[in-house]
Specification:
The chain has 304 residues and is an alpha/beta fold. Helix content is 34%, strand content 12%. It has 9 helices and 7 strands, in the order βαβαβαβαβαβαααβα. The longest helix has 20 residues. It starts with 7 loop residues before the first strand and ends with a helix. Bound molecules: zinc ion. Zinc ion binds next to loops. The site of zinc ion has 5 residues, from loops. Keywords: Hydrolase, Metal-binding, Zinc.
Amino acid sequence: MTTLPDRRLLLVHAHPDDESIGTGSTMAHYAATGAHVTLVTCTLGEEGEIHVPELAQLVAAEADQLGGYRIGELAAACAALGVTDHRFLGGAGRYRDSGMMGLATNEHPRAFWQADLDEAAGHLLEIMREVRPQVMITYDDNGFYGHPDHIQAHRVAMRAVELATAEGIAPAKVYWTAMPRSVLDAGLNAFTEASDNPFAGIDSVDDLPFGTPDPEIAARIDATDQHAAKEAAMRAHATQIPATSWLYSIAGNFGAEFMGVEYFTLAVGDKGPGNGPYGWEDDLFAGLSLDGPDRSPVAAAGLR
Ligand SMILES: [Zn+2]
């Protein structure tokens, strides 16, 4: 007879690799400190590019085998992060990567962009009923940077919260991934001289599709001690992230902090106690009473 840990965190991401790039340190931090971390990935990432030459023919336009291959990459990434509970929304292959906004792949009958919102949210609701997470992480309404699957992941996750609220089982807090403008500013400056500059052609943070004013950030999760786990998880997604990527040189330029610190805005729930000029929380579970009604009755009854 097993019970789930008292702290339960659910993450809803669009493609394999988003979990590692966007929230890898946070996932590793909570897994390492005994929380139950559930990752839900909405698509297999079939439309991705392939940066491993010998696998190039797996691409969607040729063998169309990339999605299946990425299941293995995601499994390796989760292992690196210490995350054991991973699911695909509706089961592996239910929803297809929609590709970039405006492409014909948006119209594929299985494209996640075409998903029926209530049906897709229903799959997530089933997972919420089982795991009873107190905290959920997904993207903002622009999907952080505008990819249709990220926007759809936001819509599905927030619809699932509505459905869960009606059942009285909604997470107490919902966070959206975010990047403070001050951190982007620092990145812009640090990369000016870099040969592989992700900000090439960008003069100001105002030109980027993301960037949140610092006062609007709710939580700063310092998982600097997990930066190596995050980097290992990113390297597990070798088809997607070239070994020479700026994502790795970022670690060299900023040290472990840039890799290991992640930021969130709070979309649902009450902000807990924080610190610094804007009262940023340092724990996503801050302010929650974990022994109260938030606790999973399933887990409390020792039924699983
Ligand atoms: Zn993605």
